[in-house]
Amino acid sequence: MRLAEIETITLNVGLVIFAAYIFFIIYDLAKKSKAGKFGTAVLFFALGLGLAAFLVKSVAVYMIEG
Are 50 and 42 contacting, i.e. CB atoms less than 8 angstroms apart? Predict the structure, then answer.
């Protein structure tokens, strides 16, 4: 296995771990603030959009580079 392949795999694994950690932080924030179901949904939607934009940008760059 080449170094570039190892770097790609570890980057993808790292991004998945990072995304899971961000969602855990949002959940913990909702729980500590006693946001309720609607408030939790709003937090996940609003704060999750930033993460989603980052991931969409990564996918778009990957598709453009081919």
Answer: no
Cα gap 43→27, rounded to integer Å = 8
Contact between 23 and 32 (Cβ < 8 Å): no
Domain positions in the chain? 3-65
Question: Quick one: tokens of 13?
Answer: 């694994």
Q: What is the pLDDT of residues 36-54, one digit of tens each?
A: 999 999 999 998 888 888 8
The DSSP symbol for 51 reads H
Q: How far apart are CA 19 and CA 55, in angstroms?
A: 9
Instruction: Please state the pTM of the whole predicted model.
Output: 0.71
